[in-house]
Write a structure and sequence with these properties.
By secondary structure, the protein is α/β, with parallel strands linked by helices. The chain is built from 17 helices and 14 strands. Bound molecules: uridine-5'-diphosphate-xylopyranose (UDX).
Length: about 450
C-alpha cells in the first residue's frame, strides 16, 4: 500500500521503517530539512537499537521528503505522527498537529484516504482533525473534493525496544467511525496481525508470539485507551514505590514484594520495579494531559494525581538518603551513573538524572556524571547546569563521597567494584534502580543502599 507519515520522531520514524520493511511504499515527511537530509543519507537522528539495520533493509520502499505535494497525493493512508509537547497547563500543544492536518487536507487527491492520528492527542482530536481536513479541502485550487476518513491508531512502543514493540505488539487498536477506514488499516497491518513476515535475524520473533489481537472501536475510545494505558503503567510504578516506602520501615525487601505480587496473573510482573520512578516523554506528559482533560469536564482524577505526586517524591528521597549517609551535602562530590531516562536510549526528556543533579547542585554539591550513550546530548542540552561529565564510571568514582545509580545500563552491573571503592573518597553507592548486586558491592568494600 502507499503510505505517508508526517513527522520523523520516535513514533513516525519507527512506524515508517517497519511499514517499509513489511513491503509498503512509504513516504516519510518532516519539515526539518536537516533531518530529511540525514535520513536520506542513512543517518538516524535518534539512538534506537537496530533501527539503522532495519532502515537499510527497508530503504527500497522508503522515501524521505519535506514536501507535502510529493508525499500526500495518492497515499492510501496518511499517519500524523508529529510532536504534541506539553504546555504549562499540562494540556498538549496541538500547533504541529493542526498545521500537519491543514497541509494534508490541501494535498489529498480524490481517492479515498485514511488519515490516522498516531500522535498522542487529546480525546476529541479525531473530530477536530476531520474538521481541519474538510476546511483545508474546501480551499483546494483544483476544485476537487477529497474523500477521506479519520482514524486513531495509538502507539504503545517503548523507546529502546521500539522495533520489537512495533513488529510484535501485544495488540493493535484502531478507532474509526467509518468502516472503510478500518478495512484499509486492517489490510495495512495484516502482516503484523497474522505474523506472516519473515523476522529480521537481529529482531527474532519471540517464541510466544502469536496472531496479534486487533481491537477496533470508535475514535474517542481509541484516544482514551492510549492515555489510560500510560496512566495505568505510571501508577503501577508509583504503587510499588509507595509500598517501597513502607517496606523500608518494616524491614521488608521491596524487590521480593514486587516479585511476590507480580506472580499473581491478575497483577502481572512488569512495571513493578521500585526506585527513582518514571521519566521520559510519555508518562509525565500523558498523565498531566489526562488530568487536564478531566478538568475540562469538571472531574478530578485523584489516583492519577497521586501517582504523579509519588513519582516526584522518589526524586526527593534520593537527596534524603544522601543526607542520611553524608549528613552535610555542601562541598561534597557526588557521582551519577546514567543520565538517560532509561537504558538503551539517549532521550533525556524528564530524565530523573536532570532533576536529581539540579537538587544536588542547589545544595552546593559538585556533581559528576557518566552515560554510555546520552552524554553528548546532555552536554548539548544541559551543559549550562555545570555537571562535570566523565569518560567512564571509574572516572566518575574518583574522589566521590557517594555514587548514585540513576539509569540501569548493563555496563554498570559488572563494574570493577574493588577499583571503584578504592577511587572513592567515601565508598558509598545508592542504587536508584535495584539493579546492582548487593553482595558483590559489599564484598568490594562499598556500603550499599537502595531507594525504597
Ligand atoms: C512508555 C510506555 O511504556 C509506552 O507504551 C508508550 O508508548 C510510551 O511511554 P517509554 O517512556 O519509552 O514508554 O519507557 P518505559 O519502558 O515505559 O519506561 C518509562 C519510565 O518508567 C522509565 O523512566 C523507566 O525507568 C521507569 N520504570 C519502568 C520504572 O521506574 N519501573 C518499572 O518497573 C518500569
Amino acid at each position: 500500500m502507499r503510505v505517508a507519515i508526517i513527522g520523523t520522531g520516535y513514533v513516525g520514524l519507527t512506524t515508517g521503517v517497519c511499514l517499509g520493511f513489511l513491503g509498503h511504499s512509504v513516504s516519510c515527511l518532516d519539515t526539518d530539512e536537516s533531518k530529511v537530509k540525514a535520513l536520506r543519507a542513512g543517518r538516524i537522528p535518534i539512538f534506537e537499537p537496530n533501527l539503522e539495520e532495519l532502515l537499510e533493509e527497508a530503504t527500497p520502499n522508503l522515501n524521505f521528503t519535506g514536501n507535502y505535494a510529493e508525499a500526500i497525493p495518492g497515499a492510501e493512508v496518511v499517519f500524523i505522527a508529529v510532536g504534541t509537547p506539553p504546555t504549562p497547563s499540562g494540556a498538549p500543544n496541538l500547533e504541529y498537529l493542526s498545521q500537519a492536518a491543514r497541509c494534508v487536507g490541501q494535498h489529498m487527491n480524490s481517492e479515498f484516504t485514511v488519515v490516522v492520528n498516531k500522535s498522542t492527542v487529546p480525546i476529541g482530536s479525531g473530530n477536530w482533525v476531520e474538521s481541519l481536513l474538510r476546511d483545508a479541502g474546501e480551499h483546494r485550487t483544483d476544485g476537487s473534493t477529497p474523500d477521506f476518513a479519520v482514524a486513531s491508531n495509538p502507539e504503545f512502543l517503548r523507546e529502546g525496544t521500539a522495533l520489537h514493540d512495533s513488529l510484535y505488539p501485544d495488540r493493535i487498536v484502531i478507532g474509526a467511525d467509518e468502516p472503510r477506514a478500518l478495512e484499509v488499516l486492517y489490510t495495512l497491518y495484516r502482516p503484523i496481525l497474522d505474523q506472516t513476515f519473515t523476522a529480521p535475524t537481529y529482531l527474532p520473533r519471540p517464541e510466544t508470539a502469536m496472531a496479534v489481537p486487533l481491537l477496533s472501536t470508535d475514535l474517542a475510545s481509541a484516544e482514551l485507551i492510549k492515555y489510560a494505558a500510560n496512566a495505568f503503567l505510571a501508577l503501577k510504578i508509583s504503587f510499588i514505590n509507595e509500598i517501597g516506602l513502607l517496606a523500608e520501615r518494616v524491614g521488608a525487601n521491596i524487590a521480593e514484594v514486587g516479585r511476590g505480587i507480580g506472580l499473581d496473573s491478575r497483577i502481572g510482573p512488569r512495571f513493578l520495579s521500585a526506585g527513582i520512578g518514571w521519566g521520559g516523554s510519555c508518562f509525565g506528559k500523558d498523565t498531566a494531559a489526562l488530568i487536564a482533560t478531566a478538568g475540562e469536564y469538571g472531574l478530578h482524577l485523584p489516583i492519577v494525581e497521586a501517582a504523579r505526586k509519588v513519582n516526584t517524591r522518589q526524586r526527593d528521597r534520593v537527596v534524603e538518603k544522601l543526607l542520611q549517609e553524608l549528613k552535610i551535602l555542601k562541598g561534597r562530590t557526588i557521582g551519577l551513573l546514567g543520565l538517560a531516562f532509561k537504558p538503551n536510549t539517549d532521550d533525556l526528556r524528564e530524565a530523573p538524572a536532570i532533576e536529581i543533579a539540579q537538587k544536588l547542585i542547589d545544595r552546593g554539591v559538585r556533581v559528576k556524571a557518566h552515560d554510555p550513550i546520552a552524554q553528548d546530548r546532555f552536554d548539548r542540552e544541559h551543559g549550562a547546569m555545570g555537571v562535570h561529565l566523565c569518560n567512564s564510571a571509574c572516572e566518575v568514582a574518583e574522589g566521590c563521597d557517594a555514587l548514585v545509580l540513576v539509569t540501569e545500563w548493563n555496563d554498570y552491573r559488572d563494574l570493577e567494584w574493588e577499583l571503584v571503592a578504592k577511587k572513592m573518597r567515601n565508598p558509598f553507592v545508592l542504587d536508584g534502580r535495584h539493579a546492582l548486586d548487593r553482595e558483590k558491592l559489599t564484598r568490594a568494600g562499598l556500603r550499599y543502599m537502595t531507594i525504597s
